[in-house]
Amino acid sequence: MANRTVPLATLTAVLATAVVTAVTWQSTPAQAAGLSPFDVPGRGATVPFTEFEAEKAAHNGVSTGTDRTYGTLSSEASGREAITLDAAGEYVEFTLTKPANAVTFRYSVPDGRTASLDLRTGSTLIKTVPVTSKYAWYYGYYPFTNNPADGRPHHFYDEARTLFGTTYPAGTKIRIQVASTALSPSFTIDLADFENVPDPIGKPSGAIDVVADYGADPTGATDSTAKFQAAVNAGAASGRVVYVPPGAFTLYSHVIVDRVTLAGAGPWHTVLGGRHPTQRDQAAGIYGKYTNQGGPSQNVTVKDLAIIGDIQERVDEHQVNAFGGAMSNSVIDNVWMQHTKVGAWMDGPMDRFTIRNSRILDQTADGVNFHIGVTNSTVTNTFVRNTGDDALAMWAENTPNVGNAFTHNTIVAPILANHLVSYGGRDIVMTDNVVSESVTNGGGIHVGNRYPGVTGPTAVAGTWTLARNTLIRAGNSDYNWNFGIGALWFWPDQGAITGATINVTDTDILDSSYAAIQWIGNQTTGLNLTNVTIAGAGTFALQAQAPVTARFTGVRASGIAQNPPTYSCVGSGLAITDGGGNSGWQTAGPYCGPWPAPRYGNTTPTTPTTPPTTTPPAGNLAAGRPVTATGQADVYGPGNAVDGNASTYWESTNNAFPQSITVDLGQSRPVARIVLKLPPPAAWATRTQTLSVLGSGDGSAYSTVKSSAGYTFNPASGNTVTIPVSTNQRFLRLTFTGNTGWPAGQLSEFEVYAS
Description:
The chain has about 750 residues and is mainly β. The protein has 3 helices and 57 strands. The model is unreliable at about 1-25 and about 600-615 (pLDDT under 50).
């Protein structure tokens, strides 16, 4: 039996009892729920700080709760909980366990707010630290905006750092406290990272000094880009190190590096930043040469400095990253990257590039992306937190990525998408990483044939090694779908994954928000799971939405919210070879039905109530509101009808009229018109849908607001229909009984207006 391949539906609860190596995690699901990413010995990054969660410290504030629902403060918090201080004198107090002379703390303040917080020990004021919302609070859907009218706020947190000016011993109590002079205080504290920062690194013997030799301005009052570039060029020509002494240097554009070492005095002492005052697509960054510039650059080392930018939005066309271009045989070492668009977006072809011993914080997009023909390159021993998109990613767009590795990294709370992902690629390695807190649209580790240029020779291929990784509270909701994403998930969207061997070994999937492991899209084969622990899952242990052929050996699941613990509607398409030592996920009959609510929160985004947001704008009352439907086809869930994106749509179960979609406006509201849309005219031809409008004050008893009638969606008028009404309702329901264009109800937007 240990070598027999059978459909999951025919597996019995008792499998072969072959002896396998013990898995690394032996805790219960309840213990896993409180786990910190720094509680996993031997995995993740070795960091120079000690982290303290605010909710575990002494405080007189109020907890945000532990809801994981997208759009709440707790969903983005480390450990899924933070502490809100909303009165003068309120504090969170941390007791040092090691000497420290510096702190970085993660916080949220209401949108549009600039203020400060006090650091105190006893009655002594250590520092007053500025805090601001300008690097947080994004709205709407990708590519996201800074406009509250677009709804769906997210990316609430930012981080501030400061040196104390003295070293405090272990046992010292240090408070983050609201000052007595604070106006309208409302501050949420997530955590504090205390460290003992070493003295500045001195100038290496024979080095070029950008200040003493080339006149760069260490005060940041003037633009030093040209002076940095001249110093770097001289260093490349002479083979000398280019030294950047302590200071805060303003750069209005990129410094192009090739065959040179650029060394600072340490990331707390040497800071590069700035942005062009009028040309907003130009900002501080260190770039290698692109292929069309004679690149890639070669033999570059950048070390011991910080790049802290001023990027407050995401515009994908703007090259406002800390690092970019192409660099081969090059190293980024001990660099702090913060407030840029991407920490390092590297466009190949390029070979043997390494980022190590670094920190990447508070990006508007990815932490790192190896893009287009990046080979034999690595991110290792690096700490990543609060990225706006994938934390560490590889994207083989049109040119293969080969032999790249993400190893010994710790990643916390990417606000969108995945912690670790490779879109296509051959012979990829992801090992010894620790990740926690997926927020939405992604999971802990993702393997996919997705996005432009990932097909054929660039698709997933070769041997993939995913080993000794720990995934904590990973996986979450995708607001375009009506189901959760797995902590470990596979999406062969643009073609089946059939040409690779993917080995997942000695991996711990702990306290997953939704499913632990998921497959969607086309078929996945060549998958081997060995010594994998699943301890706690908000829905299923396995979520199969596509055919998969795999071998499981020593895959043990416990604490699964749903019973049966496996979801599958693919029948014999889910075929797992029993290698022995498995438990907890097998079932004689997997579940196939409506998506259950997860254990933690739900898939419907909400607006955070603490700290207070800006006043909800007038406009579409249905935008982002909870929505349900009697049925859906494939991934075309009802949430697509209130997401503000005309290209996504809800489609009801086919050939099964009548079908309904219902939106909850939150409270009874006057309604003057309903606007219904289908996707852009270029994609959708004319059709007439027959529907009625019903309303309810309590979601139980419904009355007719508009009798059934035919409404024509015509490309000539933007595929938009307006239905005038005069009513006051909390719940509005559309019931479809016919469609001349397709045998189902279809909507890309269900908009409701009071005027």
